[in-house]
Every structure is written in C-alpha cells, then in structure tokens.
Amino acid sequence: MTATTTAPVATTPANGTRPPSARLRAWATRAPLLPALIFMIAVTQLPFVATLVISFFDWNSLYPDARSFAWFANYQEVLTDADLRRSVWTTVLLTVAVVLTSLVLGLALALLLDRKFKGRGVVRTLLIAPFLVVPVAAALLWKHVLYNPEYGLLNGLLSYVGGPQPDWISNTPLLAVEAALVWQWTPFMMLILLAGLQSRDHEQIEAARVDGASDWQIFRHLTLPHLRRYLELGALLGSIYIVQNFDAVFTITSGGLGTANLPYTVYQTFYQAHENGLASAAGVLVVIGSIIIATFALRVVSSLFREEVSRA
Amino acid sequence: MSAVAVGPRNRRKGMGLGLVAWLLGIVFFLPIAWMALTSFHSEQDAATNPPSFAASLTLDGYREFFGAGGGASPWPALINSTVASVASTLFVLVLALPAAYALSIRPVKKWTDVLFFFLSTKMLPVVAGLLPLYLFAKNAGMLDNIWLLVILYTSMNLPIAVWMMHSFLAEIPVAIIEAARVDGAKLPTVLTRVVAPIALPGIAATALICFIFSWNELLFARVLTGVVAETAPVFLTGFITSQGLFLAKVSAASLVISLPVLAAGFAAQDKLVQGLSLGAVK
C-alpha cells in the first residue's frame, strides 16, 4: 500500500553544505525512527507481498502437491463465481448503508450536542457507550438480547402495543447486521463531527446572526461548508473500518442468508475450504478496494494536516 | 454557542432540543441498560415476552459465566486478552515514542512522507496478510501462541500511536526545548524534565486507545489461536449459537468482557476522537 501515499512534499530547511560529520548526525536523527519503520515493513508489507504471490497459484492446502502457477485464474474465478461476486456486492451495500446512515445520525446528534443544555455531559457519555462495547459482545447483544423472535427486547416491546412478532434476522438478515453496526458507528461519526462543529469560527457566526441570518442560513452557508471535510473524513475512515468488518457478520449471521462480505468470504475460503490461492485473490481485491478509498482518505487527512502545520 | 438564547421563544426551542438530545441518548443507551438489567435476572425472567422489567435480581448469570454450572471458565481467555493487550501496548509505546520524537521534535528529512507511510499501513485490511501470517505461524510452530498476537497487535496499533504521539509532541513549543539546551541541559534531562511532563497525558490516552483496539480484535485471534491462547472475544464467539435459556449468561459475559474497554474509553474520552481519526481531528 505504500504506492498510495500522496504525502505533501516535506519542507526541511536546507542545511547548505554538509561536512562528513553531518552524515553521521543525519543517521543519529534517523536512528529513533528505524525500529518502528523496520517492524512495520516486516509485519505488514511482507505478508501482503506473499498474498500477492499466492494469489497467482492454484493451491489447495489439502492437496499441497497439486500446487501450480495459475496466472489470473483465481481472479477470474473470484469475479465470475456467483457466491464470491455476491460477497463483493454485499460488501459494497453493507459499507455504503452503514456509513451513510451513521453519518446522517451522527450529524444530527452532533448538532444537538453542540448546544448547551442541562446534562449535556451525561448525554454525551450515554451516546459514546455503544462504541465502547466489544464488537463481538455488541453483535451478541443484538443477536440474542434484541433480535430473538421469542423473548428479544424488540418483540417484547412490540407485544406491548400488539404489534407483529417478526423473526428479524431471518426476514431481513443484511438489515439486521447493518442496524447493529449503525448503532456502534454513529457515536464515532458524532465525535468527529462534534469536533468539527467546535472548531468553527464563532465570531463569524455571531456576526452573521447580528446581520439577521436565520439558523438554517447559518447552517447551510457557514456550518455545512466548514463541516465538509469532517464529513468526508468520517465517511472515509468509517468506510475503511466497515469494509473490513468481520465481527458482526461472523456473529449475527455467520455469513449466512446472503450477508457474507469479502472479509468473511476470505476467512471461509482459506480457513474452511483451504483454497489458499482463491482466498489470496479475494484478499487482493479487498486491498484494491481499500486502496481506492484510502487514496481519498489520505488526501483529506493530508489537507487537514497541512492546515494544522501552517497554523502552527 | 447558540445557547445565548434571547427571548422566551428561543429558550423554549432550546429546551425542546435539549429534551430531544436526552431522548436520543437514552434510546442509544437502552440496549446496554437492558443488557445490564438482563444479566442480573434469572434465566427464566430473562426469557419472558413481554419483558419483565421488575423481576427480582440475582447474580446467577455471572456465576454461570464464571463457570459455576460446569461450563468452560473464562479466566484463561481473560488473562490471554490482558497479556496480549498490555504487552502489545507496551511494545507500541517503546517503538512509537522514539519514532514520534524523530518526526516532530527533531524531524528527519521527508518526515511527512514517513508519517504518511505509517498511516497507509493502517489502511491495509487485515485479510491482506492473514493467510501468509497463518502459514508462517504454522511452519514456525507459533499457532495458538499469545506472543504471535502480541506482535500482530503491535503492528496494528503502531501507526495510530505514531500519529497520535506526533501530534502531541508537535504541540510542545520548540522554544522551551531550545531554552533548556541553552541553559546547559543534556538530552536525557530535556526528555525527562521538559518533554515528558507535557506529553504524558497524550501518551496515556494513546496507550488506552491501543489497549481498546487490541482487546476488541477478533479475526487474527480467531484464525491464529486455539484452546491455549484464545482471547476474550474468541471466548465470546462460543455464545453465537443459542444454548437454550442463556440470555442472562450471555449478557453477563458481554458486559464483563466489555468492562475494560468501557473503562479505558471513558478515561480517554477527551482524546478519543484524536486517536480514532489518527490525529487528523483535535
């Protein structure tokens, strides 16, 4: 993934001529950085290169002797196999639905929390809590405690008003996974957007108010443009995390009922079906998807970052 | 800001919106509150429809979870998770502190490029390297070994830590450090007496966030550990298939295993955004 770094050009002050001891000193400055750098390359970059290589082999670990070079056959299979293609589509659907919904909800909550009211700190704490439940535990909570058709809380509350008693996970499996994820990720979006709201230029807003601008006009013409980059950042970081989601799919539906996303499929292809080559090809596809999102994400981060450096 | 409410109409609107915020906060918290209440109910009371809000309280769910009913004890998993999270967090700090120093206080050339390299590794999905790591661990005899997870969790959190600590260290005015050096202070003294006190709250927040991510991790742990090194989230996956009446037990398990994360998260609340956004948002 090193290929995607679109970092801003570093601006180190030119040192002029460098005597021989300068080289030594340059290494002395670099030395504290090297352990972390070498560690990261060894643990994250090398395995990915290995995945890339394996993805070109026809290799089932149950038949290790039948390993052979297969060019792009694995990719062809991933892209033509109905189940695998479906998991690509599921990944897209899951990611887009969860990110957009939690972003909209998070914006609404951030706007509400940006106002002063009694117990604002308590409400903030209540809202952050879902994000601080272990993901597997949160998925179990939704699966058993809320969704259970016989004694889950949702149907329990519905029975008070004489409503229907649906089997949530069987009827709408993908929606069930999405709802649980939205519940966990809305606080994340809220926190980022709240930070964005609090970094607004308050004098400018007061001035607009004095000039007779309505709340809506201030929101539309001052707040929203300012929030744009925070919205982008929330969407992109959320996408990076949710494209990779494994816990919720694994726990709530075990990848059944058409909810298997790519990470789950990769897991299943090599862990249960032992198709190493195929799993690697699917893994590489996840990486390509992530690179596309990450390129945009890095651009947003670097623009926020540059703003900060220039402000300092 | 908009709390400078003028006139009774605005104040009433402000109060209304405050109420809406409270209502939404309660709605979001309700599943957790219900889970907590259920964990203190007996299995019979936990499985009624409509729900029994006022059923008598008991610790049976917790006793069950901790193995009183003959089930597997969660203690090995809890200890494994603690080892994996604490050890990887310590490694992260040892590696990230000098790196962040070399990227902020005495920056190397092209330090932004290095910073963005760290960030880009965070965007590499786990599945990208999972299979080679599994094959490597199998051949090296490191499957089901908690130290393998320690190494992987270190790599998972190192980029976050470098970014966060870079942004904390960059806030220290260079003039203070220069002044200390002019006064004749040597580098170790500068680091312990000047840099550390200012950076300490940030370092603590970074450690808490790394701890949370390690504690939560499932995919690596699920694939690379078995009976010996299983972590708390892997232990929880044992509850995926229903086992008769077990709602109180599941609730107790989920709550106990989430407690460290809830505690760490609330302790790091102020710096949480900065960590989650990799230092991009303050």
Written overview of the protein:
The complex is a heterodimer of chains A (312) and B (282). By secondary structure, chain A is mostly helical. In chain A, strands 1-2 form a two-stranded antiparallel ribbon. Chain A has one domain (45-311): MetI-like (MetI-like fold, Orthogonal Bundle), CATH 1.10.3720. In chain A, helix 3 packs across helix 14, helix 4 runs antiparallel to helix 11 and helix 6 runs parallel beside helix 12. Chain A has helices spanning 20-30, 34-54, 73-80, 82-113, 120-128, 135-146, 153-160, 168-171, 173-198, 202-210, 215-243, 247-253, 262-271, 276-311, and strands at 57-58, 68-69. In chain B, helix 4 packs across helix 9 (187-216), helix 5 (111-122) crosses helix 7 (146-169) and helix 8 runs antiparallel to helix 9 (187-216). Chain B has 13 helices and no strands. Chain B folds into 2 domains: 7-65, no CATH class; 75-276, MetI-like fold. By secondary structure, chain B is mainly alpha-helical. Chain B has helices spanning 7-39, 43-46, 60-65, 75-104, 111-122, 130-139, 146-169, 174-182, 187-216, 219-224, 232-236, 247-267, 269-276. The longest helix of chain B has 33 residues, at 7-39.
